[in-house]
């Protein structure tokens, strides 16, 4: 396999360059055969990288003063941010210098820059943000998590195809099951867009097994391999799950500190609690992927810690090695779904 | 205070009449000064009620053979379900025989029957389903949880006013804080409807304190007293939270059964875990209220157990005693918001 290069936006995220460099240092220990192009302020990055012995051999700094902030509108990012650390990291993928880019910066800006610099695959109108959701069994691929706040029938069908390709690659499933998030499982439930999408997925031959509508409690239950929704609903659902997990973690900590005996109980139960602790730690599942572009871009949580950023780099590495973009593109071509869908779509929307 | 009468749909819910009667028996021990009108199949109900000593003095059975099933469409419920146990329970509220109705049946059917039989309050176009969400601090009122799968700007503003009235009544707050669920907190985030609603709530004088946009993780964090969203998003968010809590409960149970030492740990930590266990038990927070109607209707979870159904009866009792409908109606009139909004609304949608 040829050498892998990963482009990093060093200035994105709530804690900036220090978190990114620490995370990269953790990732280089796990991933021994990849190099990193690190985009950001050289004056800031040099001492941070020097502090990690051996890290300077694995990274190449590309200097830029410009950075995208949390407040930058997507349109501003496109107009004025192409020479920012985020824009240059994505451009490195476009130019073939890197196989994937990772950023913990502003989601809307990253989406807009990625769309302009990489362009969407043939047959895809809008990219989607996908991630793996931990369940009790196999992980579930969920998309869109907020790349688009609105999605029509055709977008949702494209998300289903891309999500299935993602599941084939990452979960190794030949014919993944795909569900559509809705307020009930019966065919008559939901608004017009979700009902029409369900109808189309039932009627169309695609490289996936359509399982129908799934309710919100199906996300954690892992009842399907791929769960499709619009970016508004998906973003709120995933953040609701995170908030619930955070509240329960806090209540669990309270419970174990309720007194001396409880603390001993905690100490004794501690080994068994590790799986739960890992499940509840958002840094264990960090890294969402923009699907549907001519190139791979991974979004880290803005408030990830170094361990979390290293997790996102791990996701980027797996996707790049699996050549995910090519697989999605092949799926779209092989199954000629686009023409077929275009015909079916007449009169639906 | 005059005698309270609560109408019950005895045939709704996944486990039917037995669960309802058991739940009523629990509720009558807590609520000693209310009577119950129980609508359902007398042949089924008689022996169930006879099995609870003293219960027959507190309940009056009103026989009907007809029942609404989970598969009934809302339109069918309205056309053919008015003499069903659900329809008759709601009609008892309309006719002043009861002050509130409780059903664990089909949500869409209950909504449709309630709207037709009770009609909406002046100034309210669509009712909304509201519940109290447990957080680490004070409970949060959240609506709509699925009464409407779509909501326009005017509906969302009406939900905000009704939610605030609910918070004033149930949480005893003079000027509740109200947030609008969105994919980000900045004013430019979200789709057109949520942005226009945010603008209108910022600009309009209403009996509430608008706190702006709230993300999904704000639901459990309890950052506002009232959280407003459309019924599609609200339904998926609340079920996602339930699913997450269920998964974590299962993982916690696994952790404590990981071995003999873990079990001792569990035993020792047990008293401290009670608050968490109660938080994780959906039957501790059962009972959502339809707001915006000329009459009170409470929806219990379809899969509630008797304890959960008793919790929903408790919610019904509190709302009826507080005269919630009157309070919401007064709020709408006093603040003359409707005329003011109608003027502002021109050109928004």
Molecular structure report:
Chain A is of the alpha/beta class and 349 residues long. Chain A has two domains: 4-118, Isopropylmalate Dehydrogenase (3-Layer(aba) Sandwich); 128-280 and 330-345, Isopropylmalate Dehydrogenase (3-Layer(aba) Sandwich). Chain A is built from 15 helices and eleven strands. Chain A has helices at residues 16-30, 42-50, 55-58, 74-80, 85-94, 107-118, 153-170, 192-203, 218-221, 231-256, 260-269, 274-280, 306-322, 324-334, 337-345; strands at 4-9, 34-40, 59-63, 100-103, 128-133, 140-143, 177-181, 209-214, 226-228, 288-291, 296-299. The first copy, chain A, has an eleven-stranded mixed sheet with strand order 3-2-1-4-11-10-5-6-9-7-8, sandwiched between helices. Chain A is globular.
Describe the protein's topology:
The structure is a homodimer of 349-residue chains.
Chain A (H helix, E strand, L loop, with lengths): L3 E6 L6 H15 L3 E7 L1 H9 L4 H4 E5 L10 H7 L4 H10 L5 E4 L3 H12 L9 E6 L6 E4 L9 H18 L6 E5 L10 H12 L5 E6 L3 H4 L4 E3 L2 H26 L3 H10 L4 H7 L7 E4 L4 E4 L6 H17 L1 H11 L2 H9 L4
Helix pairs in contact in A: 1-2, 1-13, 4-6, 5-6, 7-8, 7-14
Entry keywords:
alpha/beta, Isopropylmalate Dehydrogenase, homodimer, 15% strand, 15 helices, 349 residues
Describe the structure concisely for a colleague.
The structure is a homodimer of 349-residue chains. Chain A is an alpha/beta fold.
